[in-house]
Amino acid sequence: MPELPEMETLRRDLDREVGGKRVKAVEVLGRTAVKRITKKQLAERLDGVKITGADRRGLFLTLKLDSAELLVLDLRDGGNLRRTTPKEEVQKGTQVIISFTQGGQLRMVDPDGVMATWVATPDELLEQEPVLTELGLDPVDEPISWTTFGHLLLSRAQPIKTVLTDQTAVVGIGAVYSDEIAWQAGLRHDRESHLLTSQEMRRLYRALVETLHDATKHRGTTLPPGGYHDLSGKPGGYQSMLQVYGRAGEACARCRGTVTKVRYAKSTLFMCPDCQV
């Protein structure tokens, strides 16, 4: 699933590419693409409205409309967005096509059909997705201090991996970036957050902020099969900078030990057992 750097990249692209555009028509091709309202209601509530900007709430993307409503985009595991011209061939798995009066289209593509979109007021969205009222720190959206992060670690009393991937603690971190952050900090994934020393907390904080900002700067991480692509269909650039994720059996860039894939909480993660302590 796309994580924070990928979703922030898409938000910035949407703000630049479709902000200020007025909707001309909406075509729904997917049977399950529209959630909470009907296909007809989606088309009616978008007809003629102007998109005033793009926002991100956790891992949800929202397009602000001049009708005071939001177009909500929940990409989930396999969804992608494409900014195209009407003449471009419709890609297999295209779920929704939004055409603009000034020309051009925004297409929602998901071969697996699990992504969802709908229109809601800001208050309705919070009622529909209660998780949005409990979101934790968002290091890309707003700077956080290391003391704020330190207080979070002390209050959780959980393994580092669990804290990093808990959306009520820190927004938008999943399997890829949690492994990279722990490696950058030189800490094992199963260290208890409230037992870290002050120095270790500072290292984890610095790794968190630097990793997420670097990944966003390089427009996210694209991993096969069918991984994330940006609004123009280009892959991210951060995958070549990954130090442990997906690199089991390779030499650790820091200590030359061997990166290992281990089981954790019914899943797997990647780490260097020699220099993550």
Classified by CATH, the class of the largest domain is Alpha Beta
**Approximately how much beta-strand content do the residues carry?**
15-25%
Strand order of the largest sheet: 1-6-7-5
Coarse structural class: alpha+beta
CATH topology of the largest domain: N-terminal domain of MutM-like DNA repair proteins
Shape summary: elongated
CATH architecture of the largest domain: Alpha-Beta Barrel
Largest sheet: 4 strands, antiparallel
Please give the number of β-strands: 10
Mean pLDDT, to the nearest integer, reads 96
Number of helices: 7
In the residues, how many domains can be counted? 2
CATH superfamily of the largest domain: MutM-like, N-terminal
Radius of gyration: 20 Å
Beginning-to-end CA distance, first to last residue: 28 Å
List the uncertain runs.
none
Q: What is the helix fraction of residues, given as a range?
A: 25-40%
Order of helices and strands: HEHEEEEEEEHHHHHEE
Describe this structure in words.
With 277 residues, the chain is of the alpha+beta class. The protein has 2 domains: 4-133, MutM-like, N-terminal (N-terminal domain of MutM-like DNA repair proteins); 146-271, Helicase, Ruva Protein, domain 3, CATH 1.10.8. The chain has helices at 4-17, 39-46, 122-128, 146-156, 160-164, 175-185, 198-217; strands at residues 23-28, 51-57, 60-65, 70-74, 80-84, 94-100, 105-109, 116-120, 260-264, 267-271. Helix 1 (4-17) packs parallel to helix 7 (198-217), helix 4 packs across helix 7 and helix 6 crosses helix 7. The protein is elongated.
